[in-house]
């Protein structure tokens, strides 16, 4: 019905979007045909022509921006408001420039796409391409073995290495790929089926946008793909005169990585792009920053990066500086083990009772149904319970009992839980202790409230109204209550996380233990995610459970989620095989449209309806039988699983049948390339998690195609329809034959939690017995509806988690803006002016309110070193605003006097250094002190002499501001971490933790901002420099020390990130080594010089 309505209105939105741009395809192909007659030099020169046209189009607005910049610099240093107005106008002009750039790129698009397509055709049809050598060609000839110089000609081979493997370029863009390229350029998501050449599609918008010299970032989900794609496509771009690099080939904060960002097109992983942004906001010199403007990013496998990884924060952390409570996990572990053991016995007793009563016909929700529901609430993953629920009619009886106790806002639910020690809500991934459980884990002789949070507001109020104790005693008692509350909250949190670890997280499914460490397994790819940890103490709880060393806690120094990082880009696009099911989320969060691109050749894969069994045992037996039958036909089989455990179970079953097979999961990730390469061979059987091998096509021989192609067997429906589509998409590549079939049982997690009630009723009604299977389109649709429920639930979870991060993101934006003002110095003067006004306003308001003139005089001396000229009579008569303004002007004049004095005093010192030490001294370190703290400020000696000390004043202000901002932000992040954990207890008080978090976070940030301003003003107004030359020493620009910091990602308890590992056999990154050249050999660039005097002069 929906399809008919869509057709009446001209098709779906995606189809309409394709129709709007389809007219460009014949235009591009027209240029493509015309360019066939051009020589290699003429085709290559198109790049310079396009750049000139772009520059010409932007010339007028660039001129306006340059004039505004000059006007701002020409203004008097005291005209802060005038400068600020011009800078705000420049920011607006830069946004207008971006829009003007998009207009000219759209005009050039057909010609630029045709140039890329023609270059691809020439590489495909020729063994090598010879053209006039450019300077870039000569540089490449030294580094790349596929480029050689012959006189004034450069020769590019059409075969080169990508990820250490020789590749022969043999791809020319199809019409549908041109459409995909246009969609990506528009800043949308191009959904293209597996095998449709997304990597080739990316070359079109990458080249077009690289012409603007603003930087194009192509983002991949792992470093293997980043390195491979940069080398695979890089030669095409280089031949056209566009530089290419990959950040994952270079060390962080290195000159090589900085150069990688300066390239026209930069490949890299989502993690490294985000971490570089954080590192850039920790450096102390603009020269140390590696990234340029965030202009245009194209994200490969965009669903994995922007949906699955969106909630996972990138964190740069360092030593915490104080002891944390890791030992508490081991101390409380025996109590939780006892609690879980007792609960298991209780659950089994209720299950036995339920079986007995239900067999007697007593399924009343208050009797037999209650026992069954209690067994389910106690341990929903209990194997005996799962098996019993697969029997005819039992699942329906459980649903009936659950509905009864969920009615009237769960009014009767305490009756269910009173017999349990804790209850589990598997759908929401939560565990909650009952009063009975609290009683069990509270030791004999212990405080009965050992695990109970006190009502802090009542306790504090009782102290306030007690007239028999002094103010000092009240303060001590309040501190004791708050301390007790904090300790108990931490203890209860530890108990909850241990309970989760024991009841919801299973070894070899959610995680594995290797080399004495707990390592998270990606639920979609089955890969181990190195360096990843569950957040909020859950990882420490699992480490305690598995008796491995609990890793020490670290302190966050900088953090951002990928969601907020990628929202900074001027334009964002993405490509994937499966994004349509998440289209609403892409639009809601990123304002990204999803456009489905038609396939080049219609898909002929046969997607069978799901086979539904009652038990897992029947299901796996049917999977093995199906594998045997397909293998007998000579067809390769790819078996998709959802966990390491299922992969290994099927592997054991196949070994018993003597069926040769490959397994690809978290424990076999190093063999990925080999396993994927063999997956399309005749009769090959490959067991892999649903998304394993993503980014690598399974290619089929003619013999395999003749017998029906690749067969996909899914052993379970995933929570997300998108993942199931990805598995199906492994077959049917580029019109290949193939088939897909999912095997489902009522015992599967998805079916147990969301989908099996109606199906169970149908099977019971139809009289299906154990061993029989049901297959119907209605059943398949019912399962997909269950998946949709999970997707909606996950979206809600993600959205709520991201709401927490949005609070942090707003604060981060403000503080990083303030930090950049200090780093570059251009707009620092206005920030300092605002700091002075805020400090003076606070002082004058507080003391005016209390009519405390003497206190104000003392505060001004302490804070700004000012003995005010305002009299007591003037203070009493002045209004608050007038008083603040007078004091502000006086304080500012005092600071300017001190600063000028410092500048003048520095000149003789610097002249003496130049006279005594000679001309070789370039920079000097000036110790600046306020009498308590010393900051070493690096100053260029000659520049300071030329500017009569102004350089020292500027560097001094920048250095102090940066240091104070960084220290305050680091402490603020620690406070925010503590806040996020502590507000979760608000649920016990029937309050929304998010609302409290927002209010408290705002107050914390306000206090931090005030503290920064107070410290800044106090130091600046009391600072002085040494007057002797021997106290000022020669200095060099030092790199910011980030060696003690670690970059990692923290999971929220539901890992979904695609942290791929390099599937090549060696663990080192594939490195492209240039030809070995002797120091005295002729330079390969053709200059005629020896290598050591030309491109080798900087070589070690």
Helical element count? 38
Instruction: Tell me the structural class.
Output: alpha/beta
Radius of gyration of CA atoms, rounded to a whole number? 34 Å
- Distance from N terminus to C terminus (CA atoms, Å) equals 71 Å
Biggest sheet, strands in spatial order?
Answer: 8-9-7-10-18-6-19
Total beta strands: 30
Helical residue percent band: 40-55%
Question: Would you tell me the overall average pLDDT?
Answer: 83
Characteristics of this structure?
38 helices; 1100 residues; 7-stranded parallel sheet; flat; 12% strand; alpha/beta
In words, what does this structure look like?
The protein is an alpha/beta fold. Helices cover 54% and strands 12% of the residues. The protein is built from 38 helices and 30 strands.
Task: Give a short synopsis of this structure.
The protein contains 38 helices and 30 strands. By secondary structure, the protein is of the alpha/beta class. The longest helix has 48 residues, at 777-824.
SSE layout and pairing:
Layout: H1 2-8, H2 13-21, H3 24-35, H4 40-74, H5 80-125, E1 128-132, H6 135-143, E2 147-150, E3 153-157, E4 159-162, E5 165-168, H7 175-185, E6 189-191, H8 198-201, H9 203-210, E7 216-220, H10 223-239, E8 244-246, H11 255-262, E9 265-269, H12 270-280, E10 296-300, H13 302-308, E11 313-318, H14 327-359, H15 368-378, H16 383-389, H17 394-410, H18 413-417, E12 422-425, E13 430-433, H19 435-441, H20 456-464, H21 471-503, E14 511-514, E15 517-520, E16 532-534, H22 538-545, E17 555-561, H23 562-566, E18 571-576, H24 583-590, E19 594-596, E20 606-607, E21 611-613, H25 616-632, E22 637-641, H26 644-656, E23 662-664, H27 672-678, E24 685-689, H28 702-706, E25 710-714, H29 721-728, E26 738-745, H30 749-766, H31 777-824, H32 828-849, H33 853-864, H34 872-877, H35 880-917, E27 923-929, E28 934-940, H36 941-946, H37 950-982, H38 993-1022, E29 1033-1034, E30 1046-1051
Parallel strand pairs: 6-18, 6-19, 7-9, 7-10, 8-9, 10-18, 16-30, 20-26, 21-26, 22-24, 22-25, 23-24, 25-26
Antiparallel strand pairs: 1-3, 2-3, 4-5, 11-17, 11-30, 12-13, 14-15, 27-28, 27-29
